[in-house]
Amino acid sequence: MAYRAIRDDALYVGSCPICDTEVLDTKDAVVCASHLSVSDGECRFRISKTLLGEEIPIEEFKKLLDEGKTSLLEGFHSPNRLTSFSATLILKEGGGLGFEFPKPAKKEEKMNALHLDKKWEEWKMNFQ
Ligand SMILES: [Zn+2]
Fold first, then answer.
1. Distance in Å, CA 125 to ligand 1 centroid
2. How far apart are CA 40 and CA 10, in angstroms?
């Protein structure tokens, strides 16, 4: 098991939702150790630590891997940077990342949230 060589408790974030290997904290991302040790990727689990303009604290990634979701995070920016919003990051089946939005007060915000979720699907590849 090659990944044992880089095992460091200080870097341990949680278990990979795809292959159950350790997920580690690296400079720019949290990455499955299987992904780190095999350059072409045995497992593709990797999440950038900066998403839509928001740097996500490592504690939130721990929570994400442990409980399947983060706390409500503030300060995300829409891709065009015109609006900012709050969202909870959720772990989808297969290790994908999704947004969960707080109940919007107004209909327009709800529409905006749906729109952003769709945009996110299109754009998330940029963050991987
Ligand atoms: Zn993995």
1. 17
2. 25
